[in-house]
Amino acid sequence: MLLKTRGKSYQVDAPIVGKVTKDIYAREDNLILLAESDALHDMTGTFLALLTKKDFKDVAVKLPGAYSVHTLDHLYEGDIVVINSDGVVNTLYRVNSHHNSLLVTERCNSNCLMCSQPPRDRNDIPYLFALYKQLIPLIPKDCLELGITGGEPTLMGNLFYELLELIKFELPDTDVHCLTNGRTFAWYNTAKRLAEIDLKRLVLGIPVYADYYAIHDYIVQAKHAFNQTILGLYNLASFHQRIELRIVLHKQSIPRLTKLAHYIYKNLPFVEHVAFMGLENQGYTPYNIQKLWIDPIEYMDELSEAVDYLSSRDMNVSIYNSQLCLMPKGLWQYARKSISDWKNIYIEECNNCALIDDCGGFFASCKDMHSQHIKALKLESL
Ligand code: SF4
Q1: Which residues line ligand 1 (CB under 6 A)?
Q2: FRET label pair with 301: which of 12, 105, 140, 337, CA 20 to 30 Å apart?
Q3: Are 15 and 84 within 8 A, CB to CB?
Q4: Which residue CA neighbors atom 3 of ligand 1 most closely?
C-alpha cells in the first residue's frame, strides 16, 4: 500500500498538513484540494494547497502545493497528508483504516535483533512533533484507535507527554496504543508524569522476551534493559497504568517461553494482555535470520504450553501474526488478525483455504520467508 508520493512543490516553505478533498466547492479549514481535471477553473472553495498530477504550466489557478505528482490514486476523501518542501507527500492518516499510527521518532535506546524499524540517530523529533501537532486536531473524532510507535517514543522527553495530552484533549474517545520498550519508566517520575495525564484509553505495549536478564538484554542488544523494563513495569503498575506485554517468537525467545509464561504470571500479573507475536521479516530480521528463524510449526508445543498456562490462570492472551493452518485447533481462539492492513498479505495457497477470512495471513515481508507447512484448510477437515 502506497503511503508516499512525490511531485514538484510550489510555494511550500514549511510542511503543509491538511485533509484531502476532491470537492472544489469545499470551504472547511485545513483542506488540500486534490484535482486531476480542469475543474479547477470553477473552483470556489478555500484551500491550503493543491495536489495534482498536472504540470504546473497547465494549471490555470496556482496554489501552493505539489504539481506533476506521480500518483494520487491511493488518496481518499478525508485522508490527511503532509506536503513537504521537497515535493514529497506523505499520508499521515487514512480515513478508511483502523491501523493508523504516529511514528514519533526513529531514535531508540535499544537495538533489537529483529527490529522492523531499525533506529536512526538523527533528531527527527521536532519535525515530527510539529507535524502531529497539526495532524491530531484534524483526525476524525470517531477515530477508534491510534497507535504511537518509533523508535522509542519516550525519547521525545516532555514532548511525549505533550503529545498524549493533545490526544486526550482532541480525541477523548479514541483508544491509544503506544509501543515502548518501557525502560524510561524505570525512573519513577516518568511513570508518575504519565499517570498524571490520566489517559485512561492508553495501553502501553512493552516487550519482555525472556525470564532471564541476559537473554532479554541480548535480544534487545542493550545492557541492563531487562532490569530497567521490569522496574518500569512495576512503576507503571504502581500508578495503575494499562500494560500489554509483547513477546516476539523466534529462536532466541522460544527455548524459555514456558518459563517466561510462569514468570509473567508470578511477577507481572497486573498486565491486562499478553501478546505472542510471529516474526516480521523486515528491518534487521533478514540480516539476523540465522539467529532468529525457526519454522513456527516447530514451536507450537512451547506456544501451546505458554498460552494454556496463562489463559488457565485468567490472563488475557492473544497470538498475533500467525497462521491458523500451523496451529493446533486449541490455539485458534487466541489468534487475532493483527497485521496492519497496509502490510497484510495472503499467499497463493490461501486462495483455496476455507478459513482465509478468519486467518491473519502474513506480513508482506514474509512472502518468501514463511513456514514450509502452510496448507489450505478444507471445510470437511474443520
Ligand atoms: S492457508 Fe493461508 S489463509 Fe489458510 S490458514 Fe494457512 S495461512 Fe491462513
Answers
A1: 323-325, 346, 349-350, 353, 355-356, 359, 361, 374, 376-377
A2: 337
A3: yes
A4: 356
Q: What is the CATH number of the domain that holds 8?
A: 3.50.30.10
Nearest residue to 202 (alpha-carbon basis) of 165, 228, 229: 165
Judge contact between 287 and 113, C-beta under 8 A. no
Final residue belonging to a domain, choices 90, 119, 149 = 90
Let me know the angle formed at the C-alpha of 185 by 184 and 188, rounded to the nearest 5 degrees: 125
> Which amino acid does the sequence have at 24?
I
Q: Do 217 and 84 belong to one domain?
A: no
Q: Which amino acid is located at 169 in the chain? A: F
Out of 70, 90, 110, a domain closes at 90
- Give the predicted TM-score (pTM) of the model: 0.94
Question: Which of 322, 325, 358 has most ligand 1 atoms within 8 Å of its beta carbon, as the pocket-test mutant?
Answer: 325
pLDDT confidence band for 61 (50 / 70 / 90): confident
pLDDT-based confidence at residue 45 (cuts at 50, 70, 90)? confident
Burial of 330 (0-12, 13-18, 19+ CB in 10 A): exposed
Q: Which of 288, 277, 319 is nearest to 221 (CA)?
A: 288
Is there a single domain that holds both residue 215 and residue 304? yes
3-state secondary structure of 244: strand
C-alpha 111 to ligand 1 mean position (Å): 32
Is the distance from CB of 239 to CB of 194 less than 8 angstroms? Answer: yes
pLDDT for 39? 67
Q: What is the dihedral of CA 336, 113, 214, 269, to 10 degrees?
A: -20
